[in-house]
Amino acid sequence: MEAILFDFGGTLDTNGVHWSEKFWEVYQKYRLPVTKQDYEEAYLAAEKRMSGVVKKEDDMITTLSNQIKFQFGYLNIENKVGSYSQLEEAVINKCYLEVIETLKITDKILGRLKGKYKLGVVSNFYGNLESVLRSLCIDKYFDAIIDSAVVKVNKPDPNIFQIALYWLNTSPANAVVVGDSYDRDIKPAKKLGCKTIWLDCKSWNRPDETSDADVIIHSIDSLDNVINTISKIKNN
Predict the structure, then answer these.
(1) Residue 194 and residue 157 share a domain
(2) Are residue 153 and residue 109 in the same domain, yes or no?
(3) Are 133 and 190 found together in one domain?
(4) In what side-by-side order are the strands of the sheet with 195-199?
């Protein structure tokens, strides 16, 4: 095995918790007066608006701030609660601090893998992935940073992983993909011929059939235990 390709959002930044679920966890913490169904509609609506607003230089907290502002606007939170601006700031900061806590684990793992393998990150993002990684001080670990908005290819298209492999000058048979989304990370990577590690925690959708995952883990800190053995798994 020569290369490891990581998903970013929901994998490296939240330890397998899809951002739809991470935001909802924080909403519940602050007892926002919205239903899960209404929130999910707001989440999807906010995602559609992000690509037209995010700037290339936007960092992690700016990205989170935009997402929360769009969600709150869709949900009309300003007219439902008092101290609106304080609540909005509290939710943004809580989300960001949880990312920072996860990065304490992620940083150590990436540091141990760097030098042993070529590392890449492949993400459906907004054109500012490189700035986000730099703001979190983990850009230094990656030999390839593939942002869907930049390369104009989105998961689950396997070609987005092929682009990363081309940059890393390696083949699918010599690469493993690590991600939290079974449909967007694991299935297309397996179709391409990569080995796969599914980070199964809190996904947006949970599949009934998971045979495309060569290994299933439930925390990013389990990666060290499986990365040395997955190279022994034969490709079909």
Answers:
(1) yes
(2) yes
(3) yes
(4) 144-147, 118-123, 3-6, 175-179, 195-199, 215-217
